Every structure is written in structure tokens, then in C-alpha cells.
Amino acid sequence: MESLLLVLDLAGILVFAISGALLAVRRNLDIVGLLALAALTGLGGGWIRDILIGAVPPASLADWRYLLVPVIAALATFWFHPAVARRERTVDVMDAFGLGLFCVAGSLKALQFDVGPLSAILLGIVTAAGGGVLRDVVVQRVPTVFGPGELYAIPAAAGATLAVVGHELEFPATPVAIVAATVAVTWRLLAILRGWHAPVPRA
Question: From the CB of residue 175, how many other CB atoms can be counted at a distance below 10 Å?
Fold first, then answer.
């Protein structure tokens, strides 16, 4: 389980950091701003999760690999993909992959700290959305998770629920994680591409 969580965490940090770096390029931030936004996006959700479950110091501050990944992602984005970063959908696609990876990693790590299934699902959603919320607040835009009718938290909840149910039923951890993350990513990407929205109150 430890190795699986490490892979999920590092992969989630990578794609979320790229989404933060791409957004930084779109907002014409300099290299310092790009590094900061990439790190905040990639690590923010994990910080919130680890503090809430009492895993302190957070894993990203205790293991150098967690800090290296957003730096590499930011520098690669800075040098090789400035034009791509100006396309809003690219940021959204990278964000969707981060959402899927982190909702699973967050819920599975929460279960390791003996929280209940419902709390683990909630922490999976918090892990998935936390970094993106911090990123959007810093660049002064409405966080994606709070967009009107935005299908963001619901796919994260679906992925986290599948991960928790699979764990409780003692299914093999890796296949469960892959299926759960795939469901969350696919749902989020289809919502972006097809314009699906969650129900909103009638005017």
C-alpha cells in the first residue's frame, strides 16, 4: 500500500503542478510565480489532508521527492510549453488527471489513519480539490470546484467512493486504484468536453 500511495501522490503532484504552471504562464507570471503556483497546486491538497488526519509533518515536507516533482514540472513548463499554456482547456485536462489521482490517494491514505469510510471519502475530495482551490484563489479566479454547476467534486466523490469500497471489500489495491482514478478522470473530462453540469437551483 505504501508504494501505491507514493506513486499516486507523485503522479498527482506532477499533473497538478503542470496545471498550476500552465495557468501561471497564461497569467504572465515570472519564473518565481510559476514555481510557487506549481508547488501550491501540486502540494496544497496533500498538505490539507495530512494536517487533518494528523500525518505531520506532511509527507511533502518529509520526503525530498515530493518537493522535487513540482520543481521539475514547473521548469519543464517554463522552457518547453509556453504556447500550450495559453489554451484554457489544456489546464483543465491536466487538472482532471490530478483530480482523479488525488481523490484516490487522499481516501486511501485517510483509511491508513483509521478514519471511517465516509470521512475517507470526504478527505479524498478535499485532497483532490484543495490544491486547485488554492491555485485559483492566488490568481484571483473563482475556484473550479465552486463554479456554477461544475462537475468537479462529484467525479472526485465517485473516485474516492470506489477506492474506499474496494478497500473495505479487500479487493487488490492497485486495480481498485486504477479503476477509481479512471472513473473520476473520465467523468471530469467528459463533463468538460460535452458541457455536462451538475443540477443548479431554478431561477
Answer: 10
* Residues 20 and 111: beta-carbon distance below 8 Å: no
Question: Residue written as cell 513548463?
Answer: 77
The residues facing 150 across adjacent strands are 197
Average pLDDT score over residue span 128-141: 91
Q: What residues have CB less than 8 Å from 189, skipping those under 6 apart?
A: 93, 96
Distance of CA 123 to CAs 43, 103, 161, Å? 15, 8, 11
C-alpha cell at 194: 460535452
Q: What pTM was computed for the model?
A: 0.89
198 Cβ contact partners less than 8 Å away, ≥ 6 residues apart = 149, 150, 151, 154
Quickly state the pLDDT bin for 82 (edges 50, 70, 90). low
